[in-house]
Amino acid sequence: MQIVDAPRNSPVMAVAAHPDDIESWCGGTLAQAIDNGCSVRLLLVTSGDKGSNERGADPRAVAMRREREATEAASRIGISEVAFLRYPDGDVEETRRLRGELVAWIRRWRPDVLFTHDPEHPLPPYLSHRDHRVVGRVALDAVYPLARDALVFPEHAVDGLRPHAVKEVWLFSSAVATSYVDITAGFDRKIHARLTHDSQTPDPSALPGNWRERAASIGAEAGLPLAEAFTILRIG
Ligand SMILES: [Zn+2]
Q1: pTM for this predicted structure
Q2: I need a labelling partner for 11 at 20 to 30 A (CA). Which of 26, 38, 52, 158 fits?
């Protein structure tokens, strides 16, 4: 177990399956990374088009609403850019096309640090969302070695994209996390961002208290007041 600071003075990229994933697991850390001089960009693989229990809901309308919520949430954290790949919610597969798109975005945004789902030890174990596992797995494959190697997806060069080596991956929703960030400074922005996801918030008055409890219980594992936890991979 170690206590770590949020990334500092680096380009950062987050890759998530659904529009409200980053707030759950790394919104406080990303807010503090921005305080520390990082630029942060967000790539959303699906637009959460299945995220409605309303009878007769139109998945395209759900996706559009959730993209608006995600864009507003990102701006509340200070994220400079959001891109949407618009894969079908609940139906993300490990395909060459998705690998190629993630490699292209890594080569475009050129992050030193990439945040994504832990695909090998997901939290919760067994009953994790399959999109989380698939997106995390493909993101890791895209980081290493695919985005780094010039002979992989050489067609990207036509768009001016050059190979890029990511230095660190921070895996969130990780059942084996050992690195803890004190998110006291970023907690209010995490909550403020999460509350923009109206469509996913049946009881907005209860959410801040519930989320404070969750951050406090993660923090208690490391002697911190409020925390998010990660498995950090350093890529040599
Ligand atoms: Zn999700």
Answers
A1: 0.98
A2: 158
Ligand 1 mean position, distance from CA 166 (Å): 24
- CATH number reported for the structural domain that contains residue 229 in this entry: 3.40.50.10320
Q: How many angstroms is it from 179 CA to the middle of ligand 1?
A: 21
Q: Is the bond preceding residue 124 a cis peptide, omega within 30 degrees?
A: yes
pLDDT digit string, tens, across residues 112-168? 999 999 999 999 999 999 999 999 999 999 999 999 999 999 999 999 999 999 999
Q: Are the C-beta atoms of residues 188 and 23 closer than 8 Å to each other? A: no
CA 132 to ligand 1 centroid distance, Å: 6
Q: What is the pLDDT of residues 162-180, one digit of tens each?
A: 999 999 999 999 999 999 9
Q: Which pLDDT tens digit goes with each residue over 190-231?
A: 999 999 999 999 999 999 999 999 999 999 999 999 999 999
Domain that holds residue 37: 2-234
Tally the domains of the chain: 1
